[in-house]
Write a structure and sequence with these properties.
By secondary structure, this protein is of the alpha+beta class. It is built from 8 helices and 14 strands. The chain has a single domain, classed as Sandwich (Jelly Rolls), CATH 2.60.120.330. The strands form 3 sheets. Strands 1-2-10-7-12-5-4-3 form an 8-stranded mixed sheet. Strands 6-11-8-9 form a 4-stranded antiparallel sheet, with no helix packed on it. It holds the Pfam family 2OG-FeII_Oxy.
Length: about 290
């Protein structure tokens, strides 16, 4: 039995919000099935992503845009976790809203922009649906997350963890222990295992999910505005112990708009809360901490 709670979205009904709240409060993660995303097209999106990362390195490097990696390609070993000097063993591509920063698209494969743009919209819609469901148990107005997050600075990250090389830094793993920056993350089930969360008792536990499920976790921004009633859970991606192949995953980081204020909800204020900050400034600080700004 999986340690992380699982919810079938299509049949959750009015219990959805409370079940989400309890799962995120207990483990910081929840597995969502029957989410309504077209599974055959999801497989097509993965195929396009895999084809892109198989391109020659010099061709991929033509799509590096700026220093902070918020759009386009970020090369292998460029990012590290906060408080970890060792680089993560990954390369990735970022897609966001053109209204916030223009996207770039590779010429190959031809299906890349179509499939990735579709997946961005599908995960954005699902993420807002889950946040709206949380407003009940959080005891905030039903439009709270629409006000701060609809049309926000959300990013879809297309990740490739290549096979481990003989000369890899022994201090590096595929993704060192970290918490996500945003409100919630929606992670389409990866192509291989390796994702682990740090349980409240200090034990690392593997996250198991059915194929085609979406794994949802709490980010630092949601933890901040709930004063850690919904804490962000530390997680990592460990190096493979078995076959040394590639691993692909596609997390969607649901962000507020940059000018939205991250203020603790009144009912969670107890004198320990962090000061108000805009989502844009919070993101800037965290990008500096992970070497992307």
């Amino acid at each position: 039995m999986s340690f992380v709670p699982q919810i079938a979205l299509a049949t959750a009904g009015e219990d959805l919000g409370q079940r989400l709240y309890e799962a995120l409060a207990r483990t910081g993660f929840v597995v969502v099935t029957d989410h309504g995303i077209d599974l055959s097209r999801l497989h097509d999106a993965y195929a396009a992503v895999e084809a892109f990362f198989a391109l020659p390195e010099e061709e991929k490097l033509a799509y590096v845009v700026g220093r902070d990696g918020q759009r386009g390609y970020t090369a292998f070993g460029r990012e590290h976790a906060k408080d970890s000097p060792a680089p993560d063993l990954k390369e990735f591509w970022h897609v966001g809203r053109d209204a916030i920063a223009p996207n770039v698209w590779p010429e190959r494969p031809k299906s890349f922009s179509r499939e990735v743009a579709w997946l961005y919209e599908a995960l954005d819609e699902l993420g807002l649906k889950l946040l709206r469901a949380l407003t009940g148990p959080l005891e905030v107005p039903a439009d709270t997350f629409d006000e701060i997050a609809e049309g926000g600075n959300s990013v879809l990250r297309l990740l490739h963890y290549p096979p481990l090389s003989q000369d890899a830094d022994p201090a590096s793993i595929r993704a060192a222990a970290h918490e996500d920056i945003n409100l919630i993350t929606l992670l389409v089930s990866a192509s291989a295992s390796g994702l682990e969360l740090l349980d409240r008792d200090g034990t690392w536990r593997a996250i198991e999910a059915p194929a085609d499920a979406v794994i949802v976790d709490t980010g630092d921004m949601l933890a901040r505005i709930t004063n850690d009633h919904l804490p962000a859970t530390t997680h990592r991606v460990v190096n493979p112990e078995g076959p040394n192949g590639s691993r692909y995953s596609m997390p969607f980081f649901l962000h507020p708009r940059p000018d939205a204020k991250l203020a603790v909800f009144d009912q969670f204020k107890d004198g320990s809360e962090a000061p108000d900050i805009t989502a844009g400034e919070f993101l800037r600080q965290r990008l500096e901490a992970i070497g992307l700004k």
